Amino acid sequence: MNFQQLRSIREAARCGYNLTEVANVLFTSQPGVSRQIRELEEELGVDIFERNGKRLTGLTEPGKDILKIIERLLIEAENLRQAGDDYSDQTKGTLTIATTHTQARYVLPKVVQGFRNAFPDVRIALQQSSPEHIAEWVLSGKADVGIATEGLSQFKDLVSFPCYEWNHVIVVPDGHPLLRKTPITLEDLSNYPLITYDVGFTGRGHIDQAFQQAGLRTDIVLTAMDSDVIQQYVALGLGVGLVAEMAVETGIDTRRFSALQALPASHLFAPNVTRLAVRRGAYLRSYILDFIVQFAPQLTYEDIRQALAPDET
User: pLDDT means per 10 residues in the chain (313 residues)?
Assistant: First the structure.
């Protein structure tokens, strides 16, 4: 039994039993992956995978239990490596952060700046994607922490911490009729084409929920992941923008969007909570703990360690 066999089993399940994709992930050949899987099955004396000819189609009942054990073993192997790195040199390494564009662009710069001052020899890798992919990267170990608004608390193998609360704002061009409305209602907004985030991003669910509960139909003419992109199209007159308040909290960027104004919308949409997630049971190097506390100062090192204890249930 070796770690390459264990990784082949785990990645086969993660990659939908596509051995070509598994080979790409593990930087090996498809026949090599098949051999590793078969050798482990022979050693254990059970079939881990169901097959249709040579093609894997799913996990057997024993395979489901074996996969859980394999995942724990690989997590502990990674924890062992991380612990060794930590004790050999606590000030060097790489911190990989998976997050959304909004967090990376508007929230993280000050935190990263402070972190770099404290740990100048730690490299930082920012990966930007959807909350679903962020969760997958943290679960697979490709990222140390994930930061997003929606979805991170839905994965049982992630521990997510609430960090801060924020609201959406309305962005309109100068002279827009909504500037004369006090207060703006959902019905007012529904009379205009809207530009906001893609489904699953940056609190979009609360926007859709508010209109649905009010029984109002919306004309969302354009969606994007990037708050700057949304504001750009609002400036072109394509519609009314709904963006995260941190995108305009220091004022509209007059160098790019001089003709835009932001209006409050906290009375229209439920507040959003940004969460930071790490893999349950993971060993976090000291500088990762420090980053988490800088991002969410209400947390303590002990809070984080207790929350990360493996779930025995």
Answer: 85 88 86 88 89 88 86 72 61 88 93 94 92 88 89 87 95 94 95 95 93 97 93 94 89 66 95 93 87 95 82 51
- 62 neighbors 47 (Cβ within 8 angstroms): yes
Question: How many other C-beta atoms are found inside a 10 Å radius of the C-beta of residue 267?
Answer: 10
Q: Edge-to-edge strand order for the sheet containing 219-224? A: 219-224, 193-197, 240-244, 168-173, 260-264
Reference 97, options 118, 84, 116, 83; nearest CA is 116
Does the pTM of the predicted model rise above 0.90?
A: no
In the DSSP assignment, the letter for residue 199 is T
Determine the Cα–Cα distance for residues 154 and 150; give it in Å rounded to an integer: 9
How far apart, in whole angstroms, are the C-alpha atoms of residue 69 and residue 80? 16
Distance between CA 105 and CA 85 in Å, rounded?
A: 30
Sketch out the chain's domains with CATH numbers: 3-85 (1.10.10.10), 91-164+273-308 (3.40.190.10), 168-270 (3.40.190.10)
What number of CA atoms fall less than 13 Å from residue 287's CA on the CB side?
27
Short-list 174, 150, 129, CA closest to 271: 150
Q: What is the CA radius of gyration of the chain?
A: 23
C-alpha span between 228 and 3 (Å, rounded): 45
- Backbone torsions φ then ψ of 159, nearest 5 degrees: -105, 120
Report residue 115 as tokens.
Answer: 């972190």
